[in-house]
Design a protein that fits this description.
heterodimer; A: about 100 residues; mainly alpha; Helix Hairpins; elongated; B: about 525 residues; two-stranded antiparallel sheet; 22 helices; about 75% helix; globular; disordered N terminus; disordered C terminus
Chain lengths: ~100, ~525
């Protein structure tokens, strides 16, 4: 068994970041886009906690703030999606088409 | 591990809270509005706006007191040490104080603009003003933050409050859609930005901008072109450019500006944008300064793309809010030129130009949006070029004020907008960027076309609707403040240039940014 080093965590975080980015760019359902954004923020958290192994507590404190921020963003995001759904009866971004050019 | 724990517990003191007083006061008033709003009967809702204005006034007094105390401490030579608190994460230096004034000005005028508008929209809720004050708290954290954690949290506090404000007209489909787009793209860019910051933390082992700069210097000395450094820089830059709406990260801006309540559009285009700039200057000129040779080529590309995209897209717009959104994108392009020209060490004219640009922009753009807000009447949305047709015959005062704001935005002397552009181009010529200066001047001419298109509609065409334009005292006050600002800065720029120089610690004859933490 090889030991799990900081590098392993960083690779997982990078993978999460890439999956999240692809999700935001390709998915059409607003809720799934919001989930992909959460994935990106979790990649950030994993990065911070892995680095704080090397550098001390600051990274973990930052991670707690990012978790809080992700929660606030999800709450506001779902609120906005509900307001949007009430007027438009859809959560598909292809049908978000009143404002363009 | 244990050492960092002890420093956490030992170094807080009451003196730190004095630095945060402007933010604490705004927070108290924001929470107060939320509670008072519950007890107010429907026809008393205007009290919320008045409470918010009192909060802004109190916060301004706190900033003035900090300003004076800073002056006194500077005479003894202890200013920087005395005015950084919370373990060096909050630094209320001259730069921060300057931006505090800008944010409070923008918020105050936007509150005045909102009072009548919200009544017409039947959305007069206290949360509106509470969110506005909270977003100003976030902006202050961005301008005074010297630690990436505080800067990021400030950014998110501002951004999340603005998402809600953009979607505040719950029954309006355009407002819903604008909020949704702004939320998705804003949250996405914040995620990328945070990822970049986490990589910088990993590279340098610190969250403090000063220490990040020191360590980065060592990192690039030993490993130039480290792919991790380049990726971290790209991610962070993307996040920053997103927040100031530079091409190619600008698509959220026209949509959010068009759908948002008009007073919030004004607020976003000045205060939120200034906060984005404060954060960008802090990060680029302090934390990431060692990487300057890497980010400048990127910024040159973005600046040219931004001026091109903003100016050309604005030509074809028929919606005034959307047109001004594209014009504000173009203005960001000019401001980026200042950052390309000056690094704050060998030459600071460009940085000073950005600061004065933001000041004049706050007055003239907010003024233009105030006029558009006053066009909102019963059953008339009033945000297209046709709606403003013949305004001169219906409401000559508003039309003439709008003309002043438009000429100022186009950069015609002797109005304020001229000085912003003048110093940007001066800094480019001082540092030998002649090509960029010529591109900038050429695009200013394009700008003149679409501003004059609005003026043409306003002065030469016949009115399409007969609905008169009435302005309430609050709106008249907002128009007066912005118009006086635009004209006075244009006619007597010296005082304001000195203020800007002070904010950067520039003493006459030197080019260095002294008096600022580096």
């Amino acid at each position: 068994m090889t030991e799990i080093t900081t590098m392993h965590y960083l690779v997982v975080a990078a993978a999460l970041f890439i999956i999240g980015t692809i999700g935001v760019l390709t998915r059409r359902n607003v809720v799934i886009i919001l989930m992909s954004i959460e994935l990106i923020l979790n990649a950030v958290n994993l990065n911070l906690v892995a680095f704080s192994r090397l550098w001390g507590l600051h990274g973990q404190v930052f991670a707690i703030f990012v978790i809080t921020d992700a929660a606030a963003e999800a709450a506001v995001g779902l609120g906005i999606i509900i307001a949007f759904f009430r007027n438009k009866e859809t959560v598909n971004v292809d049908e978000v088409d009143l404002l363009k050019w | 591990m244990t050492t960092s724990l002890t420093t956490f517990s030992l170094s807080y003191s009451w003196a730190d809270y004095r630095l945060a007083l402007p933010m604490l006061l705004l927070t108290v008033f924001a929470l107060g509005i939320l509670m008072i709003d519950l007890m107010l009967p429907a026809h008393w809702k205007r009290l919320n706006a008045i409470t918010a204005l009192i909060g802004v006034a109190f916060s301004s007094v706190a900033v003035v007191k900090l300003h004076l105390a800073y002056h006194a401490a500077e005479k003894q030579g202890i200013a920087v040490a005395a005015f950084s608190g919370f373990m060096g994460s909050l630094v209320v230096d001259r730069f921060a104080i300057y931006f505090f004034y800008l944010f409070l000005m923008g918020a105050g005028v936007a509150i005045l603009m909102s009072m009548r508008y919200l009544e017409i929209e039947h959305e007069n809720h206290g949360e509106f003003y509470a969110l506005m004050l909270l977003s100003v708290v976030g902006m202050m954290c961005m301008a005074a933050g010297y630690d990436i954690v505080l800067i990021f949290i400030g950014l998110e506090l501002m951004a999340i409050s603005t998402y809600v404000l953009v979607g505040f007209l719950r029954r309006d489909k355009r407002s819903n859609e604008a909020a949704l787009k702004y939320l998705l793209l804003g949250a996405f860019s914040s995620g990328i930005f945070a990822y970049g910051l986490s990589l910088f933390y990993g590279l340098t082992g610190s969250t403090n901008l000063g220490q990040i700069a020191q360590k980065l210097q060592e990192v690039i000395a030993t490993r130039p072109n480290d792919p991790v450094v380049i990726f971290a820089l790209l991610a962070t830059t993307t996040g920053l450019l997103f927040k100031i709406a530079a091409v190619p990260f600008h698509q959220w801006a026209p949509d959010a500006y068009e759908g948002a309540p008009t007073s919030i559009t004004g607020f976003m285009s000045v205060a939120v944008k200034s906060a984005g700039w404060a954060m960008l200057l802090r990060i680029f000129l302090f934390g990431l300064y060692p990487l300057r040779s890497m980010y400048v080529p990127l910024l040159i590309f973005v600046a040219i793309a931004t001026m091109t995209g903003g100016n050309l897209a604005a030509i074809t717009q028929d919606n005034l809010k959307r047109l001004l959104a594209y014009s504000s994108i173009a203005h960001v392009g000019y401001m980026l030129l200042g950052l390309i020209a000056s690094d704050g060490q060998t030459n600071s004219t460009g940085i000073m130009a950005i600061m004065i640009y933001l000041l004049v922009y706050t007055f003239m753009n907010l003024g233009a949006f105030a006029v558009i807000t006053s066009l909102r009447r019963r059953n008339i949305i009033g945000d297209t070029v046709d709606d403003i047709a013949g305004l001169y015959f219906k409401a000559p005062t508003e039309a003439i004020l709008m003309l002043i704001f438009l000429l100022s935005l186009a950069g015609i002397p002797p109005l304020a907008g001229f000085w912003g552009k003048y110093f940007i181009f001066l800094s480019l010529i001082e540092t030998g960027h002649y090509t960029l200066a010529s591109i900038g001047v050429l695009y200013s001419v394009v700008g003149l076309y679409y501003y004059m298109r609005i003026a043409n509609s306003m002065l030469m065409r016949q009115p399409i609707d007969a609905e008169p334009v009435h302005t309430r005292p609050a709106m008249r006050l907002a128009l007066t403040i912005t118009a006086v600002g635009t004209v006075v800065i244009g006619l007597f720029p010296n005082f304001f240039i000195n203020v800007t120089n002070w904010s950067l610690g520039l003493v006459q004859g030197t080019q260095h940014m002294a008096g600022m933490l580096r």
